[in-house]
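Hi everyone, sorry if this is the wrong subforum. Our group has a chain we'd like a structural model of before ordering constructs, and none of us has done structure prediction before. Sequence below.
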Amino acid sequence: MPEYLAPGVYVEETSFRSKSIEGVGTSVAAIVGPTRKGPIRGTPEVITSYSEFVRIYGDPMPLTFGSTTILNHTALAARAFFENGGKQLFVSRVVSGGNGTDAEGNGSSAATASATSSGDGVVTFSSRFPGSGGNLDLEVVWEDTQNLLKTETLADIADGSTAWVTITGRIEGADFNDTGAHGGFPLKSLKALVTRSGDNWILVADTNAEVINDDDSAGSVAVGGLGSSINASAVADASVSFTQITAAQPASGALVGVTPAELVLSSATDITSLSTGDLGSLRVIRGTLNAAGDQFTASASLNVGIDLAFSFYLSALASVPGAARSLTVQRNFGIDVIRRKTSSADPTGTPGVGEPIYQISGLSLNPLDPTSGLEASLPQTPQKRLDALTLPITCDTADGATITTVHDALFRLFAVNANQLTPPAGSFDEPRYVMTLSGGGDGDLPQAIDYSGESDEVKGPTGLAAFEEIEDIAMVMAPAAAADSANHQAIVAEIQKHCVKMRYRVGIVDSRKDMAISEIRAFRDNFDDSRLVLYYPWVVTSDPTGVAQDIAVPPAGFIAGIYARTDVNRGVHKAPANTAVFGALRFNQEINKFQQELLNPNGINCLRSFPGRGHRIWGGRTLSSDPEWKYVNVRRYFLFLERSIEKGTQWAVFEPNGEQLWANVETTIEGFLFNEWKNGRLLGSKPEAAYFVRCDRSTMTQNDIDNGRLVCEIGVAPLRPAEFVIFRIGQKTADT
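Answer:
Right subforum, don't worry. Here is the predicted structure as tokens:
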């Protein structure tokens, strides 16, 4: 009650209408089962498309448990769900031993794929989650693509710099200091690699010079045969020019003395004369640049076919015109995560050949970089929720790692695919830097206890327990359970317990493949619950992996999608039956009318094919023996009403428990039910016949009121499906 202390006009807000109830959603599904990868612990995030499922939980390729390979029924069911009209799906991945894992999912029977640099293990890439889906290829894409080669023609060079000198004119042996053994003096021209030192040009050791002798004979001469240096003043009358090739400072940062770099030659050119190292026919040379950018050191560990490390001055490339095509540094890069393409003819596939499923950019070779270092960019536990779901790999670098040791370690990983790293002579292919993660496995076959899961506030929940914090779920399924004959019944029992505990959920149950009529009836006899719905037989659909032409899968994914489609198009009051099954090529067993007469009374919903009408659901019953809850649409509609009323009347808690509150509650619920009747979801020609709401002294005793209880009685007349449509036809006498 506001206080009025000073004279004036006061405006107060009030409401003259009752609270309204909004109907809850009924089309949200949840699926529990094994997948090829993905998180094992934690509350799942909603998935709204099949492509999103693949990104988080892996592709639909088969799973291998020990020596047994089975179809990936969880992924196939997710695909069927979205194809049949489903919009929202929660997924809880299960693995054998999943309840004993740590917060990151490590410690189960499933194995994690990884790749570790040989020797000291400086760099280790791993899949973020265990499973066969972690056996991926990682292709490094260098982002420092600036061509650093810089060629200049100079009349002279600075003291201490190196260049290729061309001298045209008479050159005597006396013009050299410490004249060597060459017998062709005088020379008409000379081309050699030199370093300026005062008034002398020092011939760079272990290189060759191109000479034309006085008799016009030409050849390549080891500089040691000419002398140690040329006196610049002695050849002052000759024509002298210098060609200097250096590396420009890259835009990504100054050269630091041991900057990783890659030199690409225009063709398979033999430039053995540049160095004591034997380059053979290599056209891609990897090593480091010095800080001045004029000397390149090739590394034996980075180049297949080079036996030792050696250095040469870039200016030496001028001896082979057009030999150098590009020079780039290698310190910033990205990674393309590739799911390898396989087939029945090639089950292993080719490393790096497949579909990129994730791209990571802006990585640095510097392991200490707090923002772009490998460990900082690819952590085991990402801070962002989206990264925690979708980031497929992690990286760990050894203590004391540096830019150069990380670079070398990467090349030890690339060497697994040496043919891609160093294309052969004459090839038009560019080098590809591909690493392979291997060793990932699906572990043992999950048991019922793995499906049940556990609640853990510290490490996160697993299995069905992971769905307990999600209110929106209305359907639960475990299609992979139908492929495990030993644990099928036990897993369905876990789903039953979960649905009863969570109250507003139904479990979609699959038969096992190729069950006989007697077997499916015996299986059904194990359950009596209106929250379970059983479908038979399996659905034959196309194989999305391309391994087979078609495959048989449990129907749960299709059914859940049809539930969602029917709820949106017609409403939850409509029985999800006599509806086309999208994606079905046929059913694994053809059920005729006489067989269904045995199954339908037992609450076993059949999937049947009809000429001219396609493949349809031909049943809408629950597994309850109670006639009130015989039909699945009645069960689901009451769950919808109950949950909608529960959520829409939370405002009444702790309100004064008197006539005014009772009237408000009654009006609120009547308004909601009137809208349901108006939309044709309740039986009755007028509201009084369709429902009643009572909340007064007749529904509560004084003891109820004294103990804080408000009791409201609600009765509704649900619509049951016209399961048997009967037309009575007889003869009559025509009226005269």
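For your construct planning: The longest strand covers residues 187-197. Residues 659-678 form the longest helix (20 residues).
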